[in-house]
Structures are given as C-alpha cells and as structure tokens.
Here is the input.
Amino acid sequence: MTHEFGGPWTQKKLEILQDYLLAYCTALKNKGLTLHYADAFAGTGSIRNYKQKEGEQSLFPFPLEDLKGSVVTALETRPSFHRYHFNDLNQDHVDALEKLKAQHSRKSITVSSADANEFVTRFCRRLGRYDRAVLFVDPYNTELDWSTLDVVAKSGKIDLWLLFPLSVLLRMTPRDGAKIIPEWEPTINRLLGTSQWKQALYKPKPQPPQQDLFDESQENPLLERVNPEELQAWVKGRLEEIFSFVAPPVMLKNRNAPLYSFIFAVSNRDQRAWGLARKIAEGVLKKHA
Ligand SMILES: C[S@@+](CC[C@H](N)C(=O)[O-])C[C@H]1O[C@@H](n2cnc3c(N)ncnc32)[C@H](O)[C@@H]1O
Here is the structure.
C-alpha cells in the first residue's frame, strides 16, 4: 500500500535518517549490544511523494515518485538492526506493515497499532541493560505529548529523530498575542510540556516613542510572537533540559514556509556514548546542510 503525503522535505528527512541508521549500525555492531529500530508513526513502508513543478504557481504539488518509507529504509540498513518495532494507529497501515513483516520473515519484527505515546512508553519500559535503540517519531501533527519525550530522555538508551510540527505550532500561536485561541491552549501545553510558553514565546511589540504620559498601552503592551527561528531555538532549549545532547535542528520548509523541525537528541548519559552519537549526527547533518 502506498501512503500519499509529503513533498521535497520528506525525501530530505528520509535521507538524513538513512545515513544516520547506516552509521549507527556500523559503529555499534559487534559491541555485544542488541540494536533496536523503533518507529512510532511507521506509515506503510512506501510513500507517494509530492513535488512542485519548476516555476509552478499552484498550491497543489503533483506526485513525483514512490519513495521508500522509514520502515523499509530501516529494514534495508546494513549492517542490520537486531529487532524492529513498527507502530501505527491506522489499521490499513498496520496491515501493510504486517505484509512487510511477512516478506522479511527472517527478521525480528513486531507490529503494533497503539497510540504513539503509549507505544513509546511501553517500548522504553522494556529496554534492558544491553539494549540500544534508534527511535523515529514522525507525526503529521500534534499527536506526540511532551511527557512521552521525557520518558525517552530518561531511558538513557535511545537516540531520537523527532519531526517537530513547527508549522502547526506557528498556526496555534498567532503573531498577535491577543489572538491566541484559548481552546488551543491545552494542546499547546501538551505538545510543549509546559503552560509557560506564552512568557517564553511572546515579547512586547516595539512601540513608537511615548506621546501621552497616560497612554494605557504602556501598561498593557501588545505582545508579539517570536519568529520561527527563535521558536525552533526555544524548542531545542527545552529538549536540552532533558536530553544529554541535541543537534541543531533542520528546518524543513515548503517554498520557504517552515513546516517541521527535524531534531536529533541523545538520551544516553555516558559522555563517550553521546559523544559518538553527536559525531555521527553532525557528520550526517553537514552532508545534508
Ligand atoms: C507522516 S506519516 C509517517 C510516515 C513514515 N514515518 C514514513 O516515513 O513512511 C504519520 C503516520 O502516523 C500515523 N498516526 C497518526 N496518528 C497516530 C497516533 N496517534 N499514533 C500512532 N500513529 C499515528 C498515521 O496513520 C501515519 O501513518
């Protein structure tokens, strides 16, 4: 089954993931560790990708080609992972994942259909002393709770590639602070793991010089949201509070509009381990800069 979504940014994200998986398995093979690949939003294994025509004005891109999805990318990595864990909430996608599992009957593959937060939490709980994992978290939207990232960070065994939904967050946090929709606040709190985001993301709008001593706007300055780069930097900072290392995020865009932040984070507390992961990730990110 082909899964239709994405655009040029999809290919970039998958190429970065592919290069990281290859370097990770190469560096950790023969170390007496069990290497796991876990995909919380696994899809179907293949993607009908979309691309804008050169000079195209239409808002609707046309299909470009079928790409290998993240799970096939992981299955084809050599040296191989020892175990694969694929999860998706959509039953048609789960059926496609089961077919892939049957086609790779020699590999140890577990397919599940839980909500991603539940899947990740359960996966982290089961990791033993000699287990190490790469976790790919690739949601469409705001499905991932910050509390789940806390669980990943505490595992100490996971390297995380996270697609953070920057454009959705930008839409939910309008530039003009007076236009924040209260109904969206619980979703933002859950996504960011704090209710303090307004203080961090909204700053007083620069005002023209004061004309009137009794001007009320001096007491209640208009608030303006920070720009997308500052917002992304703030999210990175939040991740740095819980992970040992967080790489500079890659901002994935569509025709200059920010869509997602692709972020790498390491949970291992051992400096040699996260130093190695950092070195690998920095090499991969430099290649795709
Ligand atoms: C962007 S696609 C994943 C693409 C995939 N990583 C790939 O590269 O082929 C997001 C997937 O998440 C699934 N999904 C949506 N909400 C979910 C949730 N709460 N928990 C688990 N999966 C979910 C969708 O069915 C969809 O297959």
